[in-house]
Amino acid sequence: MKEKLSPSSRISPSSGPLLFVVMDGIGIGQKDEWDAVFAARTPTLDWLMSSAACRSIRAKGTAVGLPSDADMGNSEVGHNALGAGRVIEQGAKLVNKAIETGSIFKSAAWRTAAERCGRGGALHFIGLLSDGNVHSHQDHLHALIEQAAKEGFPRVCIHTLLDGRDVPETSALIYIEKLEALLARLNASGNRIFRIASGGGRMITTMDRYGADWRIVERGWNAHVHGIGRGFSSAREAIETFRAEKTGIADQFLPPFVVSEGGKPVGAMHDGDAVIFYNFRGDRALEISQAFEAKGAFDKFDRGKVPDLSYSGMTLYDGDLKIPNSYLVPPPEIDRTISEYLANTGVTQYAMSETQKFGHVTYFWNGNRSGKFDEKSETYEEILSDRVPFEQRPWMKAAEITDRTIEVLRAGSHRFIRINYANGDMVGHSGDMNATVVAVETVDLCLARLRAAIDQVDGTLVALADHGNADDMIERDGKGRPKFNPDSSPVRRTSHSLNPVPFIIYRPKQLLSLRKDLPQAGLTNVAATVLELLGFQPPAHYEPSMLD
Question: Rounded to whole angstroms, how far apart are CA atoms 454 and 452?
């Protein structure tokens, strides 16, 4: 696509750059004591929301291409929506459709697994076990297992990654029990052995992203592939033992485990086996996929003897790098993103975040595309994240991001600058209320510095969130009332919220206004709004601009 943007005279662009700030995970909550955004001291955000152009927008469910409005948004689909400018059917919805139509079982990836199992190999499923519907959904796994039984696969091994992040933090046994019931039913009705083989908490085992800590992948590799790890008779025993040994530990941080019998793992991988990684979201699937698919030398960790396996992902996790080579469901095709249009038009762009969200302002923003659209006009910069629990350093790398952003603003060489502050999301996932308050206050302090810099360069500041998280730190019942444990402590919420998010436009010399006739406006309306602020006519297929 080489389409260029046409100029528009409806809104005059500022003389300085447009700075686009994603305050990741900072939504608009109920403003009670469990709302860390409300509890935080945020003079800059408060002023912007009351004195600049501001409104709330949707960042969940159907507004970002997910199956229903009961589905919480997330950073990946959020940045896809921001960059695409229109609603794109996302991973969960595509997988649902592929299962409903049966096309998933006609894929080359599934047929390859069937051939291997027909020759006596085992089928291994690895993935996040929950109904969070952010990285995966247990219903997808159950459907795959049911089909494996229907087609007569002799052995199925499930390597369960425990959630506690997109679902209640100690809910793992709910999903384990449902899975075990399914396996028991299938094992009783046929000559087969289907069982859980290994697992571990998602932040400790397998699901690293952006190369932040390959040791996480190594732990998973050893447990899933080689059956190396602490042995237990069942996943339940592992979970209950870990909880007894460390009171209050969340599922996402449970150590890796291996299900064993007679001192031997029940589901180590062997030549002739097939492996399917059933997460549909790409960021935390890329590294384990690379470990399975790399031929010859592998410099991230010692894989030991690599069995002769076929490996497939639920979908294509990276279209440019072609990871994985084999997948069950074709990914969404997101072309004509805002950055592609800007690159074709010669608008200089700069994108930056720390490691935890760097892929969001680049890969996901660009429509699941790794490379740049134009090497000459685009600059990407990554600030390396700390390798410590985020609640221990809730400020993360916000100061470094701000320092560098101000330098770029003052240099004046980039017309469109986009950055992401990960604090509200990554610290919010910890469930630590006090740390999350500090995280939000950190972002607010950085916003104050950015606003001052925008004043100096006569630029435009656009600030918003991609989804909520820090705005709701407690689990609630169906009526929105907080839940408490028997000891009166709060049932901590570690997942994203369903709340709307703020959308703010600030110009030092001009007060703009936003339309009131778009009550259902969401993240997909942002691209057209940004293009008008830059002085361009939005493409006709984009959702309408929110500028009045």
Answer: 5
Q: Which domains does the chain have, with CATH numbers?
A: 6-88+333-537 (3.40.720.10), 92-329 (3.40.1450.10)
The residues with which 381 forms a beta bridge, in sequence order, are: 352
Closest-CA residue to 127 (of 275, 318, 293): 275
For residue 1, what pLDDT is reported?
66
The letter for the amino acid at 205 is T
- Residue 275 contacts by C-beta under 8 Å, 6 or more apart in sequence? 123, 124, 125, 126, 269, 292, 309, 310, 311, 312
Identify the pLDDT of residue 320: 60
What pLDDT is stored for residue 498 in this prediction? Answer: 93
Quote the CA–CA distance of 354 and 20 in Å, as a whole number.
15
pLDDT per residue as tens digits for the range 427-438: 999 999 999 999
Distance (Å, whole) CA 309 – CA 490? 45
What's 103's DSSP letter? G
Q: What percent of the chain has pLDDT over 70?
A: 99
CA atoms within 13 A on the CB side of 315: 27
For residue 171, the Cα-to-chain-centroid distance in whole angstroms is: 20
Distance from C-alpha of 124 to C-alpha of 139, rounded to nearest angstrom: 17
Please give the model's pTM, rounded to 2 decimal places. Answer: 0.82
Which of 331, 280, 329 lies closest to 106, judged by CA? Answer: 329
Tens digits of residue pLDDT in 203-262: 999 999 878 899 999 999 999 999 999 999 999 999 999 999 999 999 999 999 999 999
Answer yes or no: are the C-beta atoms of 231 and 225 closer than 8 Å: no
Question: Residue 321: is its pLDDT beyond 80?
Answer: no
Contact 275, 310 (CB under 8 A): yes
Q: Which residues are catalytic?
A: 75
Query: Which tens digits make up the pLDDT trace of 60-99?
Result: 999 999 888 888 898 989 999 999 999 998 888 899 999 9
Least Cα distance to 205 among 244, 159, 137 occurs for: 159
Q: Cα separation of 276 and 299, whole Å?
A: 23
The torsion angle over the Cα atoms of residues 314, 166, 161 and 127, rounded to 10 degrees, is: 0
Nearest to 82 by CA among 363, 471, 314, 320: 363
Cα–Cα–Cα angle for 267, 247, 138, rounded to 5 degrees: 40
3-state secondary structure 410-430: HHCCCCEEEEEECHHHHCHHH
The secondary structure of residue 100, as a DSSP letter, is H
Which amino acid belongs to residue 116? R
Burial of 10 (0-12, 13-18, 19+ CB in 10 A): exposed
